[in-house]
Write a structure and sequence with these properties.
With 448 residues, this protein is mostly helical. The chain has one domain. Helix content is 70%, strand content 0%.
Length: 448
């Protein structure tokens, strides 16, 4: 790109550049200001990555028998290898990780813009929709906060945003090359966070609906090949076929036991079982316990499922309850997160309803992605950060509704807006009533 073309690009896309650059700087500034040290899951990812970089392989405790090493039960493995590459090049530097997290977050915002422009290609205001969607995602408090931690979210969200963008690019252009690329990115996204697998049937449905058999097999073949090295490694190491490791099945057990609340709260009996058994047995035992629970307590399982749906969309579950902050700073983070989630869920729901009513194919596929994204969480465990995957999709729906809403006079009379607001607030109040004791415990942190 010569100087004249570069200047033209900058002039034509200055708002987008400001949004992307602003989200990068916000993420980077937050990371270097708080300099959050890894704890719990983040510490485990950090240790595993260091072991990979040092040549010990995917291990959490190299001195321990690998059959009792908990690393295989961690979410991954792609994020740990991503960290290992950074450590190999830059040394054990959290600053380098924060830089690449900020870069991935900014690129994700850009991909949200590109996807929105493709989805609303027939809309005269597609650029405005794309810019607003990118801004919502890029400056979302929760996503900026999580990018300052050594957690999988920033990395896998970038892959999910790329996956969604490539899908809609395929709808626009087609071609075997894009099908291959889509299969590769989808495989990597699933390898980074297994629940992303639930997006794959939507893509396959499109191929089937359009009778694109060659592209279907290309997509499946490439996606499957991504798992061959990791699956082969696990089989040679543990004698078990584990394409996703042992983390996913475990959530079925820790989220479903007599007396559970649907959240991620492992009990002493979970830990006791792990100590007494090889980690490779965790998949089988988790699913066995899950089946027993459903058979013995079917009504309780249905109740837990309903609770998880309620908690997933609850606006009284903001981010910010982390160990690194206290007092006013934490209160401001929690407030901004709650306000952002209220906006995202209200406008996202309203935008999804309006998009569904339009009966547009591309918008319906975006809606399908949004519907399938939380399905696995409904029956396993729910945590606030587990809903991040839907944020890019709701950002696009929210932007669409904002543009449509403020494009008419007397926008405050829009029934979809008020019904969406009523539903989201009612759901939050229901969660507050059902979880009042836990809510009181957290609020008490600011007074004692």
């Amino acid at each position: 790109m010569n100087k004249e073309k570069l200047l033209f690009f900058l002039r034509q896309n200055k708002i987008l550049i400001l949004i992307v650059a602003g989200s990068f700087l916000a993420s980077l500034a937050y990371s270097f200001h708080f300099q959050i040290r890894p704890a719990v899951d983040a510490r485990a990812y950090d240790v595993i990555a260091q072991n990979i970089a040092r040549g010990f392989g995917f291990r959490e405790e190299p001195q321990k028998d690998i059959l009792h090493d908990y690393a295989i039960a961690r979410v991954g493995p792609l994020y740990e290898y991503f960290l290992a590459v950074i450590y190999k090049v830059f040394g054990h530097s959290y600053g380098a990780v924060w830089f690449f997290h900020a870069l991935l977050h900014a690129l994700s915002a850009w991909l949200v813009y590109l996807a929105a422009v493709l989805i609303f290609a027939g809309n005269a205001k597609k650029e405005k929709i794309g810019l607003i969607a990118a801004a919502i995602f890029g400056f979302y408090p929760d996503l900026i906060e999580i990018s300052a931690m050594l957690m999988t979210e920033t990395f896998y969200l970038f892959l999910v945003c790329l996956m969604v963008y490539l899908f809609f690019l395929y709808l626009a252009k087609g071609g075997g090359g894009l099908a291959v690329l889509l299969g590769l990115v989808s495989g990597l996204a699933v390898l980074a966070r297994p629940p992303v697998l639930f997006l794959v049937p939507v893509i396959l449905f499109y191929f089937w609906r359009q009778k694109l058999w060659r592209q279907t097999w290309l997509f499946i073949a490439v996606l499957s090949l991504v798992f061959v090295p990791w699956t082969a490694r696990n089989y040679l190491t543990y004698g078990e076929i584990m394409p996703f490791g042992a983390a996913g099945s475990y959530n079925f057990w820790i989220g479903n036991w007599h007396g559970a609340d649907g959240e991620q709260s492992p009990q002493p009996f979970h830990s006791a079982w792990q100590v007494a058994h090889e980690i490779k047995e965790l998949n089988g035992e988790s699913m066995r316990q899950f089946k027993i629970f459903i058979q013995q307590y079917p009504a309780e399982f249905l109740k837990l499922t309903a609770l998880r749906v309620n908690k997933y969309f609850s606006v009284i579950r903001p981010m910010g309850w982390w160990f690194y902050q206290t007092g006013l700073g934490q209160a401001l983070m929690i407030f901004s997160s709650a306000l952002a989630s209220l906006f995202l869920f209200v406008f996202g729901l309203a935008g999804a309803i309006k998009a569904w009513r339009a009966k547009d194919k591309k918008r319906n596929y975006l809606l399908a992605f949004a519907v399938v994204t939380p399905l696995i969480i409904y029956i396993t465990v729910v945590e606030t950060r587990y809903r991040f995957q839907i944020y890019s999709l709701l950002s696009i729906f929210s932007a669409f509704f904002v543009v449509e809403l403020f494009g008419v006079k007397k926008w405050w009379l829009d029934k979809i807006l008020w019904w969406s607001l009523l539903f989201v607030i009612a759901n939050g109040l229901l969660d507050l009533i059902l979880s009042f004791d836990k809510f009181k415990e957290r609020i008490a942190l600011f007074f004692y």
